[in-house]
Design brief:
Layout lengths: L43 H16 L16 H20 L4 H15 L1 H18 L1
Helix pairs in contact: 2-3
């Protein structure tokens, strides 16, 4: 609720915040409810959630690429070009400010023209070389 005086009040039973879930990994409590910290001062729910995550991490699969480090030097120009396009276009695309039917193909085409496929090929070649040496 947004009163005219500019103050904001929490609405009981609602999340009271807005973000994309994927932006904050491992943010759920064990029963998938959100606990406001003011209602959870002892931190019991947070400790319980962390223990579940820590236990799961002990048995998680290790990525076959753990330890691989990409060397961007061979494609630094292409990375700079693609970064400029991403900086220009992604905010409007991800916020829904533009028509995706029109702009996504343009975005992809511009990335291809800037060398995204060369970046992918270089990274794959480095991965293949690294994997052969393991």
């Amino acid at each position: 609720m947004y009163p005219k005086d500019g103050t904001v009040s929490l609405v009981d039973g609602k999340y009271n915040f807005n973000y994309n879930e994927w932006q904050i990994g491992q943010s759920y409590s064990p029963d998938f409810t959100r606990a406001l910290y003011s209602k959870n001062e002892a931190g019991d729910k947070q400790k319980e959630a962390q223990s579940i995550v820590f236990e799961a991490d002990k048995t998680a699969d290790v990525s076959p690429l753990a330890g691989f480090v990409f060397e961007p030097e061979p494609v630094k120009t292409q990375i700079a070009n693609c970064s400029a396009i991403i900086t220009e276009m992604l905010p409007a695309l991800s916020s829904g400010s533009v028509d995706p039917i029109e702009k996504v193909p343009e975005f992809l085409s511009r990335l291809e023209g800037a060398g995204v496929n060369e970046i992918i090929a270089e990274k794959q070649a480095q991965i293949d070389t690294w994997m052969a040496a393991q």
